[in-house]
Design goal:
Layout (H helix, E strand, L loop, with lengths): L23 E2 L10 E2 L5 H14 L6 E7 L5 E5 L4 E5 L4 E6 L2 H7 L3 H8 L1 H11 L6 E5 L14 E5 H15 L15
Length: 190
């Protein structure tokens, strides 16, 4: 498998809406006319922030708040300094996408970002093939795109959110720094 250059345009957004630790923006409504779905944060939500830090902390992220998520386990995360990051498991990256709330709001106006965030066609394909998501689960690519996996039906599956965060963080760390086109060998152990 080859590693492609997929760090080109993946970014995060949240349109002009302030979100704090007591509410979360519903990913289904992430567009310029967004609506906040207030959700009380639970111990499980705080556990997810800890999982993100454990799996992806090597990138420099120090998460404080999950601002949004989509059906493929992509997250927009506010860090402890007030910057915003996007965690993208299918492309094996977690990087800063906005330094301020204003930058995040500007990004939320990008149709390219909105198309990339919603993954509408892929989500429809996953629902048709796998059914609706169970609580605590996300759709994912069995082989991440950056490792040559296709955005196609045969490469879709469901996975627990915690496992998705951990596995993608582990794989991303393993390939970090490899040049584009480098050959990698995945060895699956039980």
């Amino acid at each position: 498998m080859s590693i492609g250059n997929h760090a080109n345009f993946h970014a995060g957004h949240r349109n002009g809406l302030e979100v704090d630790s007591q509410c979360m923006l519903n990913a289904e409504h992430m567009n310029p006319s967004s609506v906040i779905t207030e959700t009380k944060w639970t111990a499980a939500d705080m556990g997810l922030i800890e999982e993100i830090e454990k799996a992806w902390g090597w990138t420099g992220i120090k998460p404080s708040l999950i601002v949004g998520e989509n059906e493929f386990g992509n997250f927009i995360i506010k860090d402890t300094t007030g910057c915003y990051w996007r965690l993208c498991p299918e492309e094996l990256y977690c990087h800063r996408v906005a330094n301020t709330r204003a930058e995040l709001d500007d990004l939320s106006q990008s149709q390219d970002f909105l198309h990339d965030w919603y993954m509408k066609g892929l989500v429809e394909m996953a629902k048709a093939r796998l059914g609706l998501l169970r609580p605590g689960y996300k759709y994912h690519l069995k082989i991440p795109a950056v490792l040559g996996g296709g955005y196609e039906e045969e490469n879709l599956a469901m996975i627990s959110l915690a496992e998705l965060v951990n596995v993608s963080g582990y794989l991303a760390k393993e390939i970090d720094g490899l040049p584009d086109g480098a050959k990698v060998r995945l060895q699956v152990t039980e």
